[in-house]
Write a structure and sequence with these properties.
alpha/beta; globular; about 30% helix; ph1033 like fold; 2 domains
Amino acid sequence: MAHYAQYFKRVVGDVESGAFFELPQSEGAGFATPEFHTTSARHGTPARIKAGDTIWLFAQLSSDWGKLPVSLDAKIVVRDVEDLVATDPASKAAWKYHADKERSRWFSLFDAKRSIPKLRVTRKNRSTQSILGDPPKHLGQRIRFLQEIADPDPLYALEAEITGQRESFISYRLQDGMEPAFHHAARLMHQGQVVWWDRWRLPRRLVERRNNVSSDALSAAIFGMIKDERPLVWGIETAGYKDPKSYGAAERRAAEALGLYRPVPV
């Protein structure tokens, strides 16, 4: 089966109106695994993708305070392919690749700079070249559109490196802790740690499009992760975070009960 990769720019707090990936997802879906991936290109590489192939998504999170390193965002093992233009000629998206939920997953933040140069893409004439090109350019300039990967072994090695580490969980108060949370995530990433931050880790429909989901589903996902995976929980201790009624305070209590809490004074 073939492997493909694509890069996306992600922006903290950005709400893209009418973007081609804004397709409906079920109410409680997407916390553990992606449901689908779409592409606006109808011909070329996207048209060759079929059931059983794998799409690897890279992304870089940008904000008013800087950019985090490029990270592996998701792995989507394609269950089946839907031709959206065939059913709706006016569709902004051309192909919809439904994910095999048993084999697809989201990834937490992890600096992928050592793995990216090991990747090679297959060109139209079936020769290969570095994914960064010659001369090398930023990944976003090279795989803005889907590209076929010549050898997926570096991707599997990167996946194993991410999933084999204990995660660091960023706990903060949205109203006054976003910037210090961003900077702490950057520090941890530069130390080679795997970072669970909701601005990245939760589905885009929540953090970028601000869609509403059940608060019970959201709480179950976050507190279940703290209980089951036992990450180190880094509390960004702003004034708002210290409010005993805040959601952050509940995260702190859950982490303290398990001996996982680490304070980050602000």
